Backbone:
């Protein structure tokens, strides 16, 4: 169940350098670039955790995000979330378990018929919106990407919507079944974990975020290697070619910045200089 907490950042940083915004220089890049750790929750307070980012987005030439958000992206995600015969709640759980699931989602305005149109993994991720009801039109990365488009600046993507969607939706159905049931059975624990992540993110505490990341070692499917480390390597391979041509603001889930296998350390190993920018 720990993966769902880390998913919202979908996130050895020097102790005492708490920042989710870093300056990138050196190794012949065209101009100073920046990297910013986001959180995948649609709440206003997270948009201004480090207000310096809103000045930087105006002066760089382009934005770099995990994915490009377009209309067909939302359609692909919606289709990927749909359940087929055999992987619906009505197919996977006992009658008693079904009633527990239906009752929970009914309290949040989701009928049993609607529940049975979605895969268990889609229902599990939906829990986040119930614990943290959205109060903006999108998460930080979405809002920042919208700002770049409004400024008529180029937007680059490090991953594809298909890759990110398949990462979750391709989870074996027996694990999807288990994750949904365990999440509902441990809602208090899930809520407390999200509040802790809220706290470390607001404090820009990458060391605190990396502690949660280490817990993914125990996960059966969405573990640290699959959800974070292997993706970081691929992202870092793409970044130099982009930064060599223009100044950019890179926006990725904060968890991708953390640890020895995080983007900050991987860029340093490639010869770049990175330093934290603290909010004023």
Residues:
């Amino acid at each position: 169940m720990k993966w769902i907490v880390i998913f919202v950042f979908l996130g050895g940083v020097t102790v005492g350098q708490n920042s989710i915004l870093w300056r990138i220089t050196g190794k012949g890049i065209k101009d100073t670039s920046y990297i910013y750790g986001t959180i995948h929750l649609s709440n206003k307070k997270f948009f201004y955790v480090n207000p310096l980012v809103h000045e930087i987005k105006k002066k760089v030439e382009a934005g770099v995000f995990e994915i490009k958000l377009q209309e067909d992206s939302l359609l692909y995600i919606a289709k990927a979330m749909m359940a087929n015969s055999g992987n619906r709640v009505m197919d996977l759980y006992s009658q008693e378990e079904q009633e527990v699931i239906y009752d929970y989602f009914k309290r949040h305005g989701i009928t049993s018929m609607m529940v049975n149109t979605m895969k268990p993994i889609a229902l599990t991720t939906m829990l986040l919106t119930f614990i943290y009801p959205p109060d903006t039109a999108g998460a930080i990365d979405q809002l920042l990407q919208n700002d770049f488009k409004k400024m008529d600046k180029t937007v680059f993507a490090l991953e594809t919507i298909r890759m990110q969607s398949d990462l979750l939706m391709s989870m074996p159905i027996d694990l999807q079944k288990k994750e949904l049931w365990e999440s509902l059975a441990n809602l208090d624990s899930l809520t407390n974990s999200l509040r802790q992540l809220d706290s470390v993110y607001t404090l820009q505490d990458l060391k605190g975020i990396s502690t949660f990341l280490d817990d993914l070692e125990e996960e059966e499917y969405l573990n640290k290697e699959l959800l974070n480390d292997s993706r970081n390597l691929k992202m870092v391979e793409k970044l130099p070619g982009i930064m060599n041509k223009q100044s950019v603001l890179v926006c990725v889930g904060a968890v991708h910045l953390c640890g020895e296998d995080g983007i900050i350390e991987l860029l340093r190993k490639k010869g770049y200089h990175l330093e934290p920018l603290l909010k004023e």
Remarks:
- Residues 3-16 have pLDDT under 50 and may be disordered.
